[in-house]
Specification:
Mean pLDDT: 82
Strand content: 15-25%
CATH topology of the largest domain: Arp2/3 complex 21 kDa subunit ARPC3
CATH architecture of the largest domain: Orthogonal Bundle
Shape: elongated
Structural class: alpha+beta
Number of strands: 18
Strand order of the largest sheet: 14-15-13-16-17-18
Distance between the termini: 172 Å
Length: 632
């Protein structure tokens, strides 16, 4: 054998030693950062490259051949730039220290090796390394080794190509291939160990029961959760045992039958089952059974995953019961209830809600939009009054109100009234409650009418239908205040039926009441304007408030009344006139006169009335001016 083979084979041993050493010590660096681990790899393989150079084959003075590139390339491929550069720098430094004619060629070879390994590292860094990558690196290193010989000085090149090229290329290829495969398989082994540890940790930490049984139903693997489910002290206590060692024969037989059916079908199966428990309360398990097969395809066992769903099942039952109770309550309640999501689509309603809107029942169903319901209600005339002439604007307003806490009463075309109450939820949904308030509305209407009637009766004289004394007092105060503000005239007529006591004595009180009604009706007829007010002042006395009326106007109204009363021709044998007549006193406030109040104005009218009676009755007299008008 040529001496070059011995030298390179010795180098191969060095490569093997350092590759094996890394496989042994690299676990020491697992707890360190990746770049520290890469640096350690680079330093170790750099030292290995130096050792390879120490046992190198020397072709001629200063020309050495060894397998340093195998370690440099392995460092670059498996450790990346940090490891590759570290190994290359150590190797290059020592080779330069050795000197000789081949130092330049050796430096180029180290640089080329580093470039090849890092280039391949960059290519495969985004995927898992494969054996073909190692083969590619081995071929490239063999080529780099032969190419490097052409960089030797001319006096050494021919001898190197003639004697070293083939052995060097072969051993570079073999050493790179073996070193790369060894490192690759070691990485895969370490990955598998880490994965197994991870899987075991996950399995043992699972809250669910996970176990594996052989074809005979014996446990061959189990996690602590399985031991807890079976009430065993530990998972190891389950190994080699069957369900029959923990459950009663009927239960164990049922479990075994399920396993046999799954293995026979070869299909993964999920089973919900009830199992007994030592505390007397059964557990509900959701069980997943997966068949295992050997290399020939025959059933080899079964994997079982049990999840305790007792609490979930109890919650589901409780939820179902709650839903049933809620549905019953919704069906029995008098109010209509509907819920809309944040986009305006109905998600729920009870029958009472749909029955509240008989003309649009067909569109008031889950899945429809509130705008479609509102449009149908408007177009079909279900609501008696629309708030806006613009239909779309009204729909926009009604839709916006759906998501604002509101309460409003809605009249329907069939005469019913419904109260609609809306409330929003934090999630954006809206709850609508509809109550039939027709009876309440009817009661409110009747109460309002009764209230108005009582109010009217409280200010009206029961016999004549005119305002009573209390209403007159309030009205006079109000009109006086307005007159002062507006600087306008206000006049007062105070009328008294002449010789009314004699009328009562002769004709009786019933005829007296008839007389009062006839006189009051004629008195009211004489007041032409809506603002004029007539009231019964007391007994046979009547009073009229005439806003915006001067003295001439007041005399004209009073005179018309007296003429009308005479025209009635009611017989009165107790009066010197022979018929029912009346006397009137008139008092006025001018716009430029400061009012001293209602009492003064009434006092003036009363004085004028007294003067009219003194003047012979059946006449009207104004205060102070003593203006009087007698019978025509």
């Amino acid at each position: 054998m040529h001496p070059v083979w011995y030298g390179l084979l010795a180098n191969l041993a060095v490569v093997t030693i350092f590759v094996s050493s890394w496989a042994y010590i690299q676990t020491m660096f697992d707890r360190w950062s990746p770049w520290v681990r890469a640096l350690a790899l680079g330093v170790l393989f750099g030292i290995g490259a130096v050792m390879a150079m120490l046992s190198a084959f020397s072709l001629e003075e200063g020309v050495f051949f060894d397998l340093r590139t195998t370690l440099i390339s392995s460092a670059g491929l498996f450790g990346g730039p940090v490891a590759g550069l570290s190994a290359a720098l150590i190797a290059a430094s020592y080779r330069i220290y050795m000197g000789g004619a081949g130092v330049w060629s050796a430096s180029i070879g180290i640089a080329a090796t580093l470039a090849v390994s890092l280039g391949l590292y960059a290519v495969i860094s985004k995927r898992a390394m494969r054996r073909r990558d190692i083969l590619t690196l081995a071929l490239l290193l063999a080529a780099v080794g032969i190419a490097g010989m052409f960089t030797l000085p001319s006096e050494h090149r021919e001898a190197a190509l003639a004697h070293i090229a083939v052995p060097s290329a072969v051993l570079h290829f073999i050493s790179s291939l073996l070193a790369g495969l060894a490192l690759l398989y070691d990485e895969r082994r370490r990955t598998a160990v880490r994965e197994n540890q991870t899987y075991r940790t996950i399995i043992e930490s699972l809250p669910d029961s996970l176990n594996v049984k052989d074809r005979e139903g014996r446990f061959i693997a189990a996690n602590p959760a399985t031991a807890a489910l079976m009430h065993a002290e530990s998972a190891a206590d389950l190994i080699g045992k069957t369900d029959a060692d923990f459950y009663a024969p009927p239960v164990a037989s049922r479990f075994r039958q399920d396993e046999l059916e799954v293995m026979a079908s070869g299909v993964m199966t999920k089973i919900d089952q009830k199992v007994p428990n030592l505390d007397g309360n059964p557990k509900w398990l959701s069980t997943l059974k997966v068949p295992l097969f050997d290399e020939s395809g025959a059933p080899a066992g079964i994997i079982t995953l049990n999840r305790d769903v007792t609490e979930r099942r109890n919650l589901a039952l409780a939820l179902e019961q709650s839903q049933q109770q809620l549905s019953y309550a919704m069906a029995q309640m008098a109010d209509g209830v509907a819920m809309f999501d944040k986009s305006g689509y109905m998600v729920f309603c009870n029958e009472q809600y749909r029955n509240s809107f008989p003309l649009t029942q067909d569109v008031r169903v889950p899945g429809n939009h509130v705008r479609d319901m509102l449009r149908a209600s408007a177009e079909r005339g279900e609501q008696t009054v629309l708030e806006l002439d613009d239909l779309e604007a009204w729909i926009d307003q009604a839709e916006a109100a759906l998501y604002t806490p509101t309460e409003h009463d809605v009249p329907l075309i069939d005469g019913r009234w419904v109260q609609v109450r809306t409330s929003s939820s934090p999630g954006g949904a809206s709850m609508v409650v509809v109550s039939d308030i027709s009876k309440i509305k009817t009661a409110e209407t009747n109460l309002l009418a009764l209230t108005n009637l009582l109010q009217q009766q409280a200010i009206t004289d029961g016999l004549t239908g005119l305002l009573n004394r209390r209403a007159f007092d309030q009205g006079l105060e109000s009109e006086l205040a307005r007159s002062q503000r507006d600087k306008s005239w206000i006049s007062l007529l105070l009328m008294d039926i002449d010789r009314f006591k004699a009328f009562n004595d002769y004709y009786g009180h019933q005829e007296g009441d008839t007389c009062l009604r006839a006189v009051s009706a004629e008195f009211k007829r004489a007041l032409k304007r809506p603002g004029d007010v007539a009231a019964r002042y007391g007994g046979e006395e009547f009073v009229a408030i005439l806003p915006d009326t001067d003295e001439d106007g007041a005399f004209a109204i009073a005179d018309e009344f007296l003429k009308g009363l005479r025209a009635l021709g009611m017989s009165h044998v107790g009066s010197e006139k022979g018929i029912v007549t009346a006397s009137i006193g008139i008092a006025c406030y001018r716009p430029d006169e400061h009012s001293r109040g209602a009492a003064e104005l009434v006092g003036r009218a009363d004085q004028a009335l007294y003067d009219a009676k003194l003047a012979g009755r059946d006449r009207l007299t104004g205060w102070k001016q003593k203006r009087a008008m007698g019978a025509a």
